[in-house]
Structures are given as structure tokens and as C-alpha cells.
């Protein structure tokens, strides 16, 4: 389960960064993305998928979270 830094890009898109892999990519889709909850399956623009149990309430970004590979 990698630690992932998520931050907001200037245009409002979320960036997903794994330091140990030096991998940074934009988040294309989040399964649950509301004001009350955020998480589930997260798909990156390169097609990679990760999973985090939905977090209530939605976290403020930037933040570091632990994801599983989906």
C-alpha cells in the first residue's frame, strides 16, 4: 500500500503522486466524489487503478493517503 500525495493542479484537476516510484499522473475518475465522501476506485489518465476506502468527510487537498492497487 503506497503513500500517495494528492494535490490540486492549477486548472482544478487532482494530481496523484507516488514518491517511491516517482510517478505523477492526473486523476481521470474517482468512484465517489461528493462533499460528504471521497474515495473508492481511482483511475489515472494512464489507465492505472488504485483503491481507498471512501473517506468521510471529503479531505482537503493537498493530502497524503494510503492506497491499494486495484
UniProtKB/TrEMBL annotation:
Report the InterPro entries cross-referenced here: NifT (IPR009727), NifT/FixU_barrel-like_dom_sf (IPR024044)
Q: What is this protein called?
A: Nitrogen fixation protein NifT
- Species assigned in the record: Candidatus Thiodiazotropha endolucinida
Q: Give the record's GO biological process terms.
A: nitrogen fixation
Instruction: Name the domain of life.
Output: Bacteria
What the entry lists under Gene3D superfamilies is as follows: NifT/FixU-like
Amino acid at each position: 500500500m503506497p503513500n500517495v500525495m494528492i494535490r490540486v493542479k492549477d486548472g482544478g484537476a487532482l494530481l496523484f503522486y507516488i514518491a517511491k516510484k516517482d510517478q505523477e499522473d492526473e486523476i481521470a475518475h474517482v468512484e465517489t466524489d461528493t462533499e460528504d465522501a471521497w474515495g473508492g476506485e481511482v483511475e489515472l489518465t494512464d489507465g492505472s487503478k488504485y483503491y481507498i476506502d471512501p473517506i468521510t468527510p471529503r479531505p482537503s487537498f493537498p493530502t497524503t493517503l494510503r492506497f491499494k492497487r486495484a
